């Protein structure tokens, strides 16, 4: 009987959906990203037509199709990913599972946490949500030779002040 007893979390948090983040930033991101395939189709169609009159029809069609596709992918990220994300807070660690297309599981030990930050954005405040950031002692390279601390962000958590206070107390005692 060497069955390992599963430790119960102090708190399990599932992020909230904040629709305003999608409605504001989704069209901006989709519009910007869709410019590239639309412009590519515009250039190729004009090269094929070899006329002096620009042919914008194909570029516009590709732009609209790619805009719709990117908006759908952002919809999945904004509305479906929170259903698949869980933050589990234990006495000595935080485990989280996130991702819609690619699932990630990570554990952060509280004795490695050197700072805890609470951010409540304008759109998050409409849903009483916020983001709690844990800054760890682990150093990572940003690519240009500078080292910085690794941070883990718990996005759109409900009752962010309570989660922040709990994690801050556990990290201080860890």
Can you offer a commentary on this structure?
This protein is an alpha+beta fold and about 170 residues long. The chain has two domains: about 90 residues, Pleckstrin-homology domain (PH domain)/Phosphotyrosine-binding domain (PTB) (PH-domain like, Roll), CATH 2.30.29; about 60 residues, no CATH class. It has four helices and seven strands, in the order βααββββαββα. A four-stranded antiparallel beta sheet has the order 1-2-3-4. Strands 5-6-7 form a three-stranded antiparallel beta sheet, covered by helices on one side. Strand 3 and strand 4 form a beta hairpin. It is elongated and about 75 Å long.
Tally of separate domains: 2
The residue-averaged pLDDT reads 88
Strand content: 25-35%
User: CATH superfamily of the largest domain, please?
Assistant: Pleckstrin-homology domain (PH domain)/Phosphotyrosine-binding domain (PTB)
Q: Biggest β-sheet, characterized? A: 4 strands, antiparallel
Q: What's the topology here?
A:
Layout: E1 11-13, H1 19-49, H2 57-84, E2 86-89, E3 93-98, E4 104-109, E5 113-119, H3 122-125, E6 129-141, E7 147-158, H4 160-173
Antiparallel strand pairs: 1-2, 2-3, 3-4, 5-6, 6-7
Helix pairs in contact: 1-2
Keyword list:
three-stranded antiparallel β-sheet, 44% helix, 2 domains, PH-domain like, four-stranded antiparallel β-sheet, alpha+beta, 174 residues
